[in-house]
Amino acid sequence: MIPEALWIITVTGICLGIQNTVTAVHLRTMEHFVSAVQHLEDLNPRLTPLALLSSLHKTIGQRDNITSGFLGSSDNTTDIHYIDSNNSFITPKLNVNRKLFRFFSKAVNHFIIDSCEEKGVVLTPDGTTVALAPLLLGIENGLKATEDDLRHHNHYLLPLAKNLALSFLQFQNSTMAKFLGPDGCWDSISTPMVFSLLGQPSLATDAVVHGGMDGAILGNHLSVVVKLSQMLKSYYLDNVEEFDHTSHSHLRARFRRQNFKNLTNPSLLRKKVADALQTYRWQGNITSESLVEEGMREFVLRYMDCPSIIPRCIWGAASPHVPLDSLSPPLPFLYIHHTEIPSKPCVNLQMCSKNMRAMQQFHQKVRKWHDIGYSFVVGSDGYIYEGRGWMSQGAHTRGRNQVGYGVAFIGNYNSDIPSQYTLELVRNHLIKCGVKNGFLQENFTMLGHRQVVNTSCPGDFLYSEIKAWEHYKDMDPLK
Q: pTM for the whole thing?
């Protein structure tokens, strides 16, 4: 594992490219990782999930000084011994064969190489990317705190707080534009091997934050665990094809942001970041309170207020036929659409991505537009999909594409409406995100597509729904 100081030096430059040679020896998917955990459990049937996690971290050489300082060490295992006769590495608690040892060493240790390839991350079935180190440490801390009756100390937040603290320190000593992020793209969605970041890396990339949030959620809620693999499978791999407005309370990765907001608050997380920073201040790294406040504002906006948006590279977008015209935000209008075709809501990444590709192909080949027309598209899988985004002019509302964004719900809503959770993604998150980031004017006007163009869009039921939303206007101000 690359030391943190060396990592900071390594990743301070802008990413210039992606390695042409794939060096990974396994697919980097959550399914593959859960299978490996299950195999490790089979080799160690007598170990509790806490003992398994603690021994795994020691065996692969992954240590976390901040969290261990608060929680102490859960066991005092000695150095690893290799037994050639049965091809196994053994500590007093953990048996792991050579192949599995190499797998976990590569899968769990997180770092970024100078080509901006992020290691120690996996692709989940819902299209998000998660760093395994903060995920497993959050779960371990939650289990250890429960065992020692320290749950009220919120130790499950420590891995996330540590990475935020390091990122704030890095920001203070560099020319970075952002405390956090960025996201990235996989070389392949079906067979992911290489994950490359889309910009200048912080020490709290999207994958690291996702792992920290998931570790906190699971570390807090799942304190009694029979099998670690079963817990991960339930959270990441179990399909939930239909859900209603109460489903965000379910422990599923797709509801990460809502569950994290329900779990904690900015002031509590800010305190944990301050606690983590104390570990580094004795080394001479002093972070001002104003810098922490600014970093926390960015975190809350990016990961608690804004919705999770599936980028174009994940849903498989083709390139625009020509460079798209730029917008000049903040814009004064937001236009609501439904796709009508496909008529059924999409409920998982595969279905939504297929719909997105079909829409883009129709818009480009039949309508002769340069790209998919919408700014954003809303699935019924808990995610919003990036169309032309915040900065590129769309082709969604005739005569108004320069002054507003077009947001389309996948489905036909002439006789039904999307789930309440899906509606809230736009009403309470995408809109707030647009205003706070300066893309939408604070006093913007929201209209249904039919108010501007002779069409039934966005469907009778959806149109009736949005009429009760803030910023909706009965009359089009431009008419």
A: 0.88
